[in-house]
Design brief:
It contains 13 helices and 38 strands. The protein is α+β, with helices and mostly antiparallel strands and 731 residues long. The chain folds into three domains: 3-321, alpha-galactosidase from lactobacil brevis (Beta-galactosidase, Chain A, domain 5, Distorted Sandwich); 332-635, TIM Barrel, CATH 3.20.20.70; 640-730, Immunoglobulin-like. The longest helix is centred in the last third of the chain and has 19 residues, at 501-519. The mean pLDDT is 97.
Length: 731
């Protein structure tokens, strides 16, 4: 059993294959956190709760004269405001005459099979044949009538616990939630490091590792999307934790909107990690009988370092989160028209590009921005999802038929959440966008954001997107979003509910995607938000692959894909070979290297093949053949980061290993070359130590133990920005 309750000790025990998670009901009804780490047989961990008089730490009334019991010190599963705990709370609420105190006491629990669906939001699923149970603990406040349900879905074989929170107003007065965190994880020590992933548009998910220090370190987004700047994923790890050893805990929020992750080291050197909806600008009104559902947080522990933690997240996201039929299907190799043509194209130009793409062995042609309305630049036509007959005289249907006749599938770009002021939609419905009354709008990329907190707007988008997909045979959709939200004000909500807009927007987006995707399950939907601005688990629930970044420079992508790999599998990262000099950096990188880097993701092209030489086209054909030959290894193999590009300036290396350990692919890219350079080696990982392997193109065979202990020499003849791929097969 994955979930048990010991009535004698009032302890809840959650167990996965390799981890244990324990919590107990205190003598006063509080739910205290006991332990999360390596699996242990013990069920009574009371000794870990050390009670002492902490002076200025207050004591609950029910404790009487007992000055040793204080919520200011004790590790908790869900911390409420004004309870005596001065640390950052899990929840803040206001009701009645302005009261904010809340006391969540355990009122009951249930254990149910599987993982119940989270209403209106994405979450993990227990797949057929898997073991899974869910514990729901109910907390109640007898004064204000708030009921808090803490849900723990245990994925036993996947080593994952998925936590979510549901708040119900069972009282007689209106309550206003001002903060609801999906998870609070209290550590009784703080000698840890915090790993998080930050950046900016074109340089997303940079790896950051800092020591936990006094006070609060927070990451998050207030931009209406999970953002380019921070990813809703963080790791707490021991100081000695490496890729291959040491303890680490992962927290990943399944949410696409404004989020907050906090790491707080308190006065007694304890650590509290919390993750949930960003409380900045957030409030949610609950009338009597109303319920609020917070997003799911995915927790994982590893005792064998960061690589194992990544493998846990890769498996659970790939197999239990993505629900597209493409979850286990080979993804088509695509060519996207954006860097090939931008807005400057007509039907003939598109067909000439597609013809050359087909000749190269590409599977799918994607028509990017510029095909609809009067769209010839950034400042017009968003919202008018009808084909531009002046630019495409043959129309989308005929264009699609011609492309299919070449042996290609056809895909199309949309940006359904946006509207241009220069559009028929805006002229008809200026109130449909998010903007404050009486003020000129704040523009981003010359466009405004449609108000997805409104059902009428959502239904229009559903109708418009279904219309796009019905106009021709379309197998792929690139779903873009090219600005952040500034004015979170909706014309349909009263002044007391404007703090709900950003969250309701995300719920509206989930509704829209559900409606469109479920009607077109055969279509491969690809997420894009200026590249990687909404690269989060929630999007993967709807769209099994996401543009990793708008930055297509191969050398920059080494760092972007490195950071992304800590939580997200290769099969979710769309990556393309682009033109040189690169359009973002001006860097010139060999075509071979661009191919190697793009194969560290869902492989494709973003260039004009009509401008390639015959030699370059043949190289592209070989890249495609290679990728398809080793697709399962690349997309589903265990992933190993062999170097850290933030520490090793000379080369970046990574490796995929098949589940049976019989095959492996090693990729190396030279990033800094010196004259009369030293010989460098890279140590491989994940091989069977007692088995022998042959390396294609090399003589002899080598034991897995040798390859992992001594490594292989990085070829000294490789020039700067050159790369190499090595295929290993068990002898």
């Amino acid at each position: 059993m994955a979930v048990r309750y010991n009535a004698d000790t009032k302890t809840f025990i959650l167990e996965t294959k390799n981890s244990s998670y324990l919590m107990k009901v205190s003598r006063y009804g509080n739910l205290l956190h006991l332990y999360y780490g390596d699996r242990v047989p013990d069920e009574d961990l009371d000794y870990l709760i050390v009670l002492a008089d902490r002076g200025f730490s207050p004591n609950p009334n029910e404790a009487g004269n007992d000055r040793t019991f204080s919520l200011d010190v004790l590790p908790q599963e869900f911390s409420t405001s004004r309870s005596g705990d001065y640390r950052s709370p899990s929840m803040e609420a206001v009701w009645g005459k302005g009261e904010v105190s809340c006391s969540g006491k355990v009122a009951g629990y249930e254990i149910c099979p599987g993982a119940p669906k989270i209403e209106g939001m994405p979450g993990l699923r227990v797949m057929p044949g898997e073991q899974g149970e869910t514990l729901v603990v109910r907390l109640e406040d007898p004064v204000n009538g708030l009921e808090i349900e803490l849900s723990y879905a245990v994925f036993e074989e996947k080593d994952v616990i998925a936590r979510s929170v549901r708040v119900a107003n069972r009282g007689r007065e209106t309550a206003r939630l001002e903060k609801v965190m999906s998870v609070t994880l209290d550590f009784m020590e703080s000698d840890y490091d915090l790993i998080y992933f930050s950046g900016r548009h074109l340089m997303e998910r940079g790896f950051r590792r800092i020591p936990v220090s006094d006070g609060i370190h927070s990451i998050g987004s207030s931009r209406g999307a999970s953002s380019h700047q921070y990813n809703p994923f963080a790791i707490v790890c021991g100081k000695d934790c490496t890729e291959d050893s040491g303890q680490c805990w992962g927290v990943s929020l399944v949410y696409s909107g404004c989020f907050l992750i906090e790491a707080e080291k308190d006065q007694f050197s304890q650590l509290r990690v919390s993750a949930g909806i960003n409380p900045q600008g957030f409030s949610f009104q609950l009338e009597p009988g109303d319920v609020f559902q917070a997003p799911q947080a995915v927790l994982a522990w590893s005792g064998k370092g960061l690589t194992e933690l990544s493998h846990i997240y890769h498996r659970i996201f790939r197999e239990n989160l993505c629900r597209s039929p493409y979850r286990k299907k080979p993804r088509p190799v695509l060519l996207n028209s954006w860097e090939a043509a931008y807005f400057d194209f007509d039907g003939e130009k598109i067909l000439s590009i597609a013809k050359e793409a087909a000749d190269m062995g590409v599977d799918l042609f994607v028509l990017d921005d510029g095909w609809f309305g009067c769209r010839n630049n950034d400042d017009a036509a968003l919202g008018d999802w009808t084909e531009n007959r002046e630019k495409l005289r043959m129309g989308i249907r005929e264009l699609s038929e011609n492309i299919h006749a070449m042996g290609l599938e056809f895909g199309i770009w949309v940006e359904p959440e946006m509207v241009s002021e220069e559009s028929e939609l805006y002229r008809r419905h200026p109130d449909w966008c998010l903007r404050e009354p009486g003020r000129p709008p704040v523009r981003g990329r010359y466009q405004l954001v449609l108000d997805l907190s409104r059902r009428d707007v959502c239904d229009y988008i559903v109708e418009a997107m279904n219309g796009v997909l019905d106009m021709a045979r379309i197998e792929y959709v690139k779903w873009d979003m090219n600005r952040s939200i500034t004015e979170a004000w909706s014309a349909l909500l009263d002044r007391n509910r404007q703090g709900e807009v950003l969250h309701r927007y995300i719920l509206g987006l989930y509704y829209v995607m559900d409606q469109v995707i479920l009607k077109h399950p055969e279509v491969l939907f690809c997420g894009c938000c200026g590249g990687g601005g909404r690269f989060d688990p929630a999007m993967l629930y709807y769209q099994p692959q996401i543009w990793c970044s708008d930055n297509t420079d191969a050398v920059n992508r080494l760092k972007i894909q490195y950071g992304t790999s800590f939580a997200y599998p290769v099969s979710t990262m769309e990556a393309h070979v682009s033109v040189c000099p690169n359009h973002q950096t001006g860097r010139i990188t060999p075509l071979h290297t661009r191919g190697i880097v793009a194969m560290d993701g869902v492989f494709g092209y973003e260039l004009d093949p009509t401008k390639l030489s015959e030699e370059e086209k043949e190289e592209c054909r070989e890249q495609i053949r290679f990728y398809k030959k080793y697709y399962r290894l690349i997309a589903e193999g265990d992933y190993y980061r062999l170097t850290n590009p933030y520490e090793n300036r000379y080369f970046t290396a990574w490796q995929q290993v098949s589940q049976d350990r019989k095959k492996s692919l090693v990729s190396i890219v030279i990033t800094d070359k010196e004259g009369n350079d030293a010989q460098r080696f890279v140590k491989l990982k994940g091989l069977e130590p007692d088995q022998f392997y042959r390396i294609e193109g090399w003589k002899g065979k080598y034991s897995g133990k040798l390859l992992m202990s001594a490594g292989i020499p990085v070829p000294s003849e490789l020039s700067e920005y050159a790369g190499i791929q090595l295929v290993l097969k068990m002898a």
